[in-house]
Amino acid sequence: MEKKQWIALSLEVMNVSETMAGFGTAKMDFTYVDGKIVDMDVYDS
Question: Which of 3, 7, 8, 43 could form a cystine bridge with 27, CB 3.0-4.6 A?
Answer without folding.
Answer: 43
